[in-house]
Design brief:
alpha+beta; Jelly Rolls; 5-stranded antiparallel sheet
Length: 251
């Protein structure tokens, strides 16, 4: 009987240890994702924008940044001018980080102009065969859902994985207010956060990912969604937009 009781205690102890190991191994992932629901202040975060200069950013395909990207009130802002019924930047273009990243958490705030459109594009790779940032990089949509034409398309609304996956719920704030966005990528497993809510969850680089691309507007872009590491881009879609508190933590 003593031996039986002793064996039972050992088994229970080992089971408890295994459960603790499992919880410990999963905890960092849950904690990391949770931090994207608010402005991060934990250790390990690095500023991609200092709030004062455009240092660390350049126009896609160039070594400098266009003059239409300026710093206003602590925000990296795209200035535009009227062009008939639309607007455009005089000297803008999509801008990208100088550095390239693979597994990371990205946190930033954005504010779009009335009826405006922009985007946060990631895993961007430059090359002669890639004319635009979106030839390689998937996009988290930035949009005024109330009046931009793209808002009529289910996968083109604010927070969507553009043209691929729609948000689980609409949590975007009205024009004129700042939206907190977060992107987490770990070995292809990707999560989008908007204003404290996880709105999109998907995995890249598997067959399901390839099938999804084959049914999208990117189907004829051979480099789209193929790269595990690349630049982070902010899109010039011809509309005024501002970004601030841009931070990254590599995983």
């Amino acid at each position: 009987m003593r031996y039986l009781l002793y064996s039972l205690v050992c088994i229970l102890s080992l089971t408890s240890c295994e459960q603790k190991k499992k919880i410990t191994s999963e905890a960092p992932s849950r904690q990391a994702s949770a931090e994207l629901t608010s402005l991060p202040d934990a250790e390990g975060w690095v500023e991609l924008f200092d709030g004062k200069t455009t240092a660390g950013w350049r126009t896609y395909g160039k070594t400098t940044i266009g003059k239409s990207w300026v710093v206003k009130d602590g925000a990296l802002t795209l200035e535009v001018v009227a062009d008939g019924k639309r607007t455009r930047s005089k000297d803008g273009g999509d801008i990208i980080t100088v550095g390239q990243y693979e597994n990371y958490e990205l946190s930033l705030e954005w504010k779009i102009s009335p009826c405006g459109n922009s985007g946060i594009i990631f895993n961007v790779v430059e090359g002669k065969e890639y004319e635009k940032t979106y030839n390689t990089g998937p996009e988290m949509q930035v949009l005024d859902n109330t009046c931009h034409p793209d808002a009529k398309i289910h996968t083109h609304r604010a927070g969507d994985l553009y043209d691929l996956i729609a948000c689980s719920e609409e949590v975007v704030k009205p024009v004129g207010e700042w939206n907190l966005a977060g992107i987490r990528i770990k070995d292809g497993a990707t999560e989008f956060y908007l204003n404290g809510v996880k709105v999109v969850d998907f995995t890249m680089f598997n067959q399901e990912w390839a099938d999804m691309i084959a049914k999208s507007k990117f189907k004829d872009m051979p480099g789209f969604g193929k790269f595990r590491k690349g630049h982070i881009a902010l899109q010039d879609h011809g509309d005024a937009v501002a970004y601030r508190n841009i931070k990254i933590r590599e995983l």
